[in-house]
UniProtKB/TrEMBL annotation, chain A:
GO molecular function: ATP binding; NEDD8 conjugating enzyme activity
Low complexity biased stretches: 9-20
Domain UBC core: 30-174
PANTHER family membership: UBIQUITIN-CONJUGATING ENZYME E2 (PTHR24067)
Positions of the UniProt region annotated as Disordered: 1-28
The protein's name: NEDD8-conjugating enzyme UBC12
Keyword line: ATP-binding, Nucleotide-binding, Transferase, Ubl conjugation pathway
Species of the source: Penicillium alfredii
Pathway(s) where this gene product acts: Protein modification; protein neddylation
From TrEMBL, chain B:
Pfam families in alphabetical order: E2_bind, ThiF
A Gene Ontology molecular function term of the record: NEDD8 activating enzyme activity
GO cellular component: cytoplasm; nucleus
Enzyme Commission number, as recorded: 6.2.1.64
Entry-linked SMART domains: E2_bind
Pathway stated in the Swiss-Prot or TrEMBL entry: Protein modification; protein neddylation
Protein name: NEDD8-activating enzyme E1 catalytic subunit
Protein's GO biological process: protein neddylation
UniProt cross-references to InterPro entries, sorted A to Z: E2-binding (IPR014929), ThiF/MoeB/HesA (IPR045886), ThiF_NAD_FAD-bd (IPR000594), Ub_act_enz_dom_a_sf (IPR023318), Uba3_N (IPR030468), Ubiquitin-activating_enz (IPR035985)
Residue intervals of the E2 binding domain: 343-426
Keywords: ATP-binding, Ligase, Nucleotide-binding, Ubl conjugation pathway
Amino acid sequence: MLKIWSMKQQQQQAENAESAAGKKKKKVTAAQLRVQRDLQELTLGSTMKMSFPNPDDILNFTLTIEPDEGMYKGGIFNFSFSVNQNFPHDPPKVKCTQKIYHPNIDLEGNVCLNILREDWKPVLNLNAVIVGMQFLFLEPNASDPLNKEAADDLRTNRDAFKRNVRSSMAGGSVRGNAFERVLK
Amino acid sequence: MDTSTVVVPDQQGRWKHLYKALTKPGPFSDEDWVPGAETVNALESSKILVIGAGGLGCEILKNLALSGFKDIHVIDMDTIDISNLNRQFLFRQTDIGKPKAEVAAAFVQKRVKGVNITPYVGKIQDKDEDYYMQFKIIICGLDSIEARRWINSTLIGMVDPEDPESLKPLVDGGTEGFKGQARVILPTLSSCIECQLDMHAPRPAVPLCTIATIPRQPQHCIEWAHQIAWQEKRKDDPFDSDDMEHISWVYNAALERAQQFHIHGVTFQMTQGVVKNIIPAIASTNAVIAASTTSEVLKIATSCNPYLENYMMYAGEEGVYTYTFEAEKKPDCPVCGNLARKMDVDPNMTLGEFIESLGERAESQLKKPSMRTEERTLYQRFPPQLEEHTRPNLQLKLGELLENGQEIAVSDSAYTIDFRFRLIFK
């Protein structure tokens, strides 16, 4: 085919030289642009809400999930989202702001969700992350734990795990750890 | 015509002339070009995507197959209508209602032995980058600007500086009546659809107040019947432009209104034209443009001759006039340029008015945008909390929200790429 590719290479060299010479103005960053688009294309069900402490900063926000089924039904769970300027090449950083009892969320609030780490790809969007987060509450996953004790409970005794979930959500202690009350 | 009785010409002899062009250097072929088996192989192994199987698409499919391409895909969401048969020659009366892509693919495949045509019935927007990545060249015969902009921005977004295969030449054809154009776009390298968007000015929209109060032209009466009378009288009945009863109803309502205002010229045909937005199509114009675009595909795929750089216009309405020129890449093109495009605005205009005007301006044509500056969210349609917070901005003047010369970034769900504008106060 055409020598298109060598044309492309020449163009890039010229561009690099140009941008080194002139200073750039304050531009909307690629990350902002992408988040603006992702937000516009979100589908939030009745179980999810978002809030923006500073509406002019769309890179930092809170997602609230209120599961309407499953073991975590009745709880209100908050996650802070922090998107860096390298988004969508880097995944958003997501943390649970409450101390909760969940096999895939540790006591510091770190979340274990494959698409937030190893399986993140720039083609994924915020909607994919939010759907994944919701799924964690419907189907806690014992095979990939961050809270090992909770995962063991889930694997060995599902009923005991359920009871632990209920009492932790009510603000009780499980295995010596006091949890935050997250019930409505 | 019954295709089964057609005498199939000698398959070996069929490509004789084509092979001559591909196996011997000519006066215009590139110095580095290697004629021969390698080039013939490049032609036969190139996977080509044809977008649209209508007036241009039928011609393009036929031309590509007869130019020796063996692996062709075609995508079209439409079904065959009786009004297509006068020029979309791959379709017969018995095909009415069937998907264009499938019928066209089957016809050409049957007629030209050895070619493989894979149809897809659906929208180009159904497919993702992985799908478009498999093709060598993409050729369009489309009737909508929106679809052109979509494929243009998608192909530009796909270009990965690390991967030569990610750059897909786009050959675009278009016709309207006796006029037509053919162009070659090398995404990110040469002028793109968006660079020349202002050439495709949107149809002048008649203000709703003219339609609702005092019409001046027969078209105004038809728009009134279509947009206002229908809403009042038949609200629960969704308007279907293919339903003859619906068109008749609109026609009669328009006729009555025209008589009230002493306006002449409302006809059934005009009614159909206005409500269906029909663009006049002439078979020979399609043939001219399809011939031009397909020979560009042949030249790009084989490098046998120089390709079109990069725009050919054809005007057949007064004698014949064609003109070829190199449309320039705009450095501030919102899609292929990395600079914001300049846009003159009135600082006293409110943000709400500005957003509305984006839908009408030739250079943007955006209907449901969200937008921001580097430090401020101007208007964000979703999620609801941001919409609520930014809604009051709609009442503010641009001069209160922005500085002169500031850059805004605009996203619209209808397009895969976002837009940057630098607003200059006038």
